[in-house]
Amino acid sequence: MKQQIHRAADRGHVQHGWLDTWHSFSFGSFYNPQKMHFGALRVLNDDVIKGGFGFGKHPHDNMEIITIPLSGALEHRDSTGGQGVIKQFDVQHMSAGTGIEHSEFNANKNEDVSLLQIWVYPKERNITPSYDQKTFLPSDRKNQLQYIVAPDNPTALKAHQDTWFSLGDFDAEQTVEYKLHVPNMGVYVMVIEGSATIGADTLLKRDAIGISDTASIQLTTTSSQTQLLIIEVPMHY
User: Fold this and answer.
1) Is 10 left (phi over 0), alpha (psi -120 to 50) or beta?
2) What is the fold of 11-125?
């Protein structure tokens, strides 16, 4: 088993006034050659956007983009005609493919929106761009994992990659076992809230660990209201 811990405080941090953002991997002005990606997982940004602000229209291509609002609401518009407002308990998936332009703005003027935005390399380049979003009930992830992105689960969003994303909300002293779906995959775990242990290591809020060369992992939550994000991705990138 190979593993590396990414502590929350070691992430790249940029404060733009209207945007407070932390980068788990090299992004924008933050560059760390030891943190370029984890397998097919290229970006995991932890953003807080002030009310009334956001990202104007900008392009992407050949990337699978997953957005998970943690609080507040985010308004999305893109060049495929996709549009919508996503809020806590929603998840958005966008395939940039051959090229897409989109904008993302805080849908409220008087409160922040907090979100995780995650980029994954696609399985195939230059596909037709697409957009989708879905609501996932928090009751379906109480003390268990809930798939939000998966190629083989009819209740989950589907990305153009062999990747599984799952969320879980756990009480203290819960054992979480995760079995990887196919060989040569890795799993990246972020503690969104609370704390957990894996082996001899303790992970606190926004700490993360990347693990590969294993068929399964096991964590134990050490505080109440622990929220986990688990991302399984191919490692040959």
Assistant:
1) alpha
2) Jelly Rolls (2.60.120)
